Amino acid sequence: LALALTAVGPRSSMLASPSTKDPLFRTIEEVHEARTKRYGKLLDAGTGGHSLRWLGSLPRDAVDRIVAVSADLSSGEGKGAAETRSFLDAPRGDVLVEGAWCCGDRRRQPLVEPGSCDTIVADYLVGSMDGFTPYEQDRLLDELVPLLSEDGIIHLVGMQPVYATLAASAYAGLGEAQKLVVDVARLRDACILLAKHRPYREFPLAWLQRQLDRAGLELAAPAKSFGIVWKHGTVKTQLDVARRKLAYFDDPALADAMRRKIDHLDTRARTLLADKGVVYSFDYVISATRRPAASSPPTPS
């Protein structure tokens, strides 16, 4: 597994957008380039504004149709997708639809039928499922893989958990800047829970890799990871999420205490992280295809 931090620049390709700067999306493009494989009918299974902008910038001849699915088009990444639906090509048949996975939701049918998708992109979809269909993550590939065409390819993008797998002894060994990143993530999720909402729950790369074999998939290319640089602005975005949840607290005194803690962490982030930041955790991309069926034994003569 390669850990990369290098920014990527524009390039020209029949299977890549010249404007792609996100290393995760660039990795997906490189997989298609290496296999000389068009995207064909493409399912964006957990769409958002970020992924729609990228998909809309892909060479038109490389895509037949995009079906973008969000569990909730009124908030979060789903709202971002709704606000950027202009990047879709309606005359081509592109469509944005609301629907969740692993809960019997059929609103996306008949837009995606078994065996109809040449490319599936699941961009942070596993991590977001706790907000809509918790404890169903292990069933996601059971729903997505049957939608793949025989030579289709699925791209799974995720984030290594910031604190969920971190033991107390490991936390004690972190540097001050890394501890701050962990503290911010814990505070954000605590505020989400106290607001009676559901936080996202990211899954480790190793967990998702274990699901591939069970789902009848094999790697199309080595998995790649990219270290996350946490600057003050990055941390402030997470603290703003926590701050917005305070209005939903039942206890005003607790909300005030949390507000002071948020302000304290924000001040520390300005000093410790500033615009340089610190590398902690990583985003990853797994690209997989159906595992070839075992060869049939020869017929006895």
Class from helix and strand fractions? alpha/beta
Poorly predicted parts: 4-8
The largest pleated sheet is described as: 9 strands, mixed
Instruction: Let me know the number of strands.
Output: 9
The helix content, as a percent range, equals 25-40%
Distance N to C terminus: 47 Å
Q: What count of helical segments does DSSP give?
A: 10
Given the C-alpha coordinates, what overall shape results? globular
Rg (CA only)? 21 Å
The fraction of residues assigned to DSSP E strands is 15-25%
**Mean pLDDT value:** 91
Order of helices and strands: EHEHEHEEHHEHHHEEHHE
Provide an overview of this structure:
The protein has 301 residues and is an alpha/beta fold. It has 10 helices and 9 strands. It has helices spanning 23-35, 49-57, 76-83, 125-128, 140-144, 168-172, 176-194, 205-214, 232-245, 252-272, and strands at residues 2-4, 40-44, 63-70, 95-98, 117-123, 148-159, 217-219, 224-230, 278-290. Strands 1, 2, 3, 4, 5, 6, 7, 8 and 9 form a 9-stranded mixed sheet that branches. Helix 2 (49-57) runs parallel beside helix 3. The protein is globular and about 55 Å long. It starts with a strand and ends in an 11-residue tail after the last strand. Residues 4-8 have low confidence and may be disordered.
List the helices and strands and how they pair.
Blueprint: E1 2-4, H1 23-35, E2 40-44, H2 49-57, E3 63-70, H3 76-83, E4 95-98, E5 117-123, H4 125-128, H5 140-144, E6 148-159, H6 168-172, H7 176-194, H8 205-214, E7 217-219, E8 224-230, H9 232-245, H10 252-272, E9 278-290
Parallel strand pairs: 1-8, 2-3, 2-5, 3-4, 5-6
Antiparallel strand pairs: 6-9, 7-9, 8-9
